[in-house]
Design a protein that fits this description.
The chain has 466 residues and is α+β, with helices and mostly antiparallel strands. It is 32% helix and 21% strand. The radius of gyration is 24 Å and the shape is globular.
């Protein structure tokens, strides 16, 4: 009988030589080399055979047979051959068979479900390590399955049934959903200060972005999906802090406390008078910018949490040299451009860039999220700091950076050659530069330059692992 399989992500070791990397997922670049998301389907089982099509990593295919290192597959009405080491087993539901050392987005789904059942206490990494194997075994033992630590057909089916029963009180909400449950989610996110859009009951990119910001602030796995854990924590928070947002026009003792902290950190001068006016709003905006938060001048939970934390960046440490406190390496994530970043990276809002090699920080804004992000520094000061990271001379050479936005930090790569045009005419830079993330591409199909940027992403990710 035919079986199902999923296409693996592969790693380019040297020119013309391909090798298997762990299954596609955000952690795929943790090993050395450059990953590619696409493989050829060939007419016959040979690398010199005609390419019939190209399929993405994660594509579900039907396996018709295997011979001499090639697997005959059927996908989308087309039949052809793929190297067998690019194919991984899958269940009939389309989920990857999870066992030790497998890396895939489905591993995150599994880990999150097991965590919500109280069987897994590790991080949501997308990699099946010893803790995940132990959690799978615990689940299998609890529900009468063979406790082999491998999440195959039976385990996935039971997990789906169990989570469906336990999750009735909190419907899992994600991008594309709509209805009253989404309205409630949006209201709570807005009340907590993470959502600025309209409460329309439609879970789109803005709602997903707000969920991610909230999850990051609360230490929940950042996936943009509002499951039971996320909704319960949000509900408790908004119930406890209803009406507690501080913004222009607010007044009282809480504003006085805010102003004292802003004065302590060097963002505000004068007396703490308990009145949230223009000076206080500008101070909040400056604080948000320097600390990688959404710059809106409103003190919600994310801004307040950073204000009271010991890691809050002081205004005095954010001098023109760009020597700002580095983002926490442990918090750096490796996220795919086309899977996640493209749809969450805000346009026309401040993004904090930390240059891994020099430790300097500057701010840019993205005005186009196409095959990659087109960005430019915000101020002349930011342009000067960026130029310093290039040794005083602009260059096409990619540099590894960490990009902080919406409360998360992501490994990336930036080039330093102003080109074309950009909307900002007052930043001292005539043009724009390119900001690349995992799996992003150039506009002109220059694969050699794509590879160099992916190497930059790799270096940024490696720097976070030290």
């Amino acid at each position: 009988m035919d079986r199902l399989a999923i296409i693996r992500k592969v790693k380019i070791m040297t020119a013309g030589t391909l090798a298997v990397l762990a299954l596609a997922g955000p952690c795929a670049l943790a090993a050395s080399g450059v990953t590619t998301d696409r493989v050829n389907i060939r007419k016959t089982g040979s690398t010199s055979s005609q390419s019939l099509s190209v399929v993405n990593a994660g594509t579900l295919v039907t396996v018709l047979g295997t011979e001499n290192g090639w697997t005959k597959v059927k996908v989308g009405g087309m039949t052809g051959y793929i190297r067998s080491d690019y194919v991984a087993s899958s269940t009939t539901s389309g989920r990857v068979v999870v066992k030790k050392n497998v890396r895939h987005a489905d591993v995150k789904v599994l880990q999150q479900a097991l965590k919500e059942l109280g069987l897994y206490s590790g991080d949501i990494t997308g990699r099946c390590g010893d803790k995940t194997v132990a959690a799978i075994k615990a689940f299998q033992s609890k529900y009468g399955l063979k406790a082999d630590g491998i999440a195959g057909e039976a385990t996935w089916a039971k997990l789906q049934a169990v989570t469906a029963d336990t999750g009735k009180t909190a419907q899992t909400l994600r991008n594309g959903d709509s209805g009253e449950a989404v309205r409630t989610l949006q209201r709570n996110l807005k009340s907590a200060g993470y959502f600025a859009g309209g409460v329309d009951g439609k879970f789109g990119p803005k709602t997903e972005e707000a969920v991610r910001k909230f999850q990051k602030a609360m230490g929940i796995s950042v996936d943009g999906i509002a499951g039971k854990v996320t909704q319960d924590k949000l509900s408790r928070l908004t119930t406890a802090s209803s009406g507690q947002l501080l913004r222009k026009g607010s007044s009282g003792s809480r504003v006085t406390t805010l102003q004292k902290r802003l004065i302590e950190l060097g963002y505000l001068t004068g007396a703490a008078d308990g009145k949230f006016g223009d000076k206080t709003e500008n101070a909040v905006r400056s604080f948000q910018k320097r600390n990688g938060l959404t710059v809106d001048g409103i003190v919600g939970n994310a801004t307040n949490a950073k204000l009271i934390s010991s890691s809050a960046v002081k205004a005095s440490s954010a001098a023109s040299s760009g020597s700002v406190q580095a983002p926490s390496a442990s918090g750096v994530q490796l996220l795919g451009w086309f899977e996640t970043v493209k749809y969450t990276l805000p346009k026309n809002k401040d993004l904090s860039i930390y240059d891994v090699r020099t430790g300097k920080t500057y701010t840019v804004r993205s005005f186009s999220n196409g095959n990659h992000a087109d960005v430019e520094p915000v101020t002349k000061e930011d342009t000067a700091i960026m130029l310093e990271t290039y040794g005083g001379k602009w260059s096409w050479d990619p540099r590894p950076v960490w990009v902080t936005y919406n409360g998360i930090t992501v490994a990336a790569s930036i080039n330093g050659m102003p080109h074309a045009t950009g909307p900002n005419k007052n930043n001292g830079m005539d043009g724009q530069v390119c900001l690349h993330f995992l799996g992003s591409r150039t506009h002109n199909g220059n694969t050699a330059f794509e590879k160099r940027h992916q190497e930059g992403v790799q270096e940024a990710w490696d720097a976070a692992q030290k």
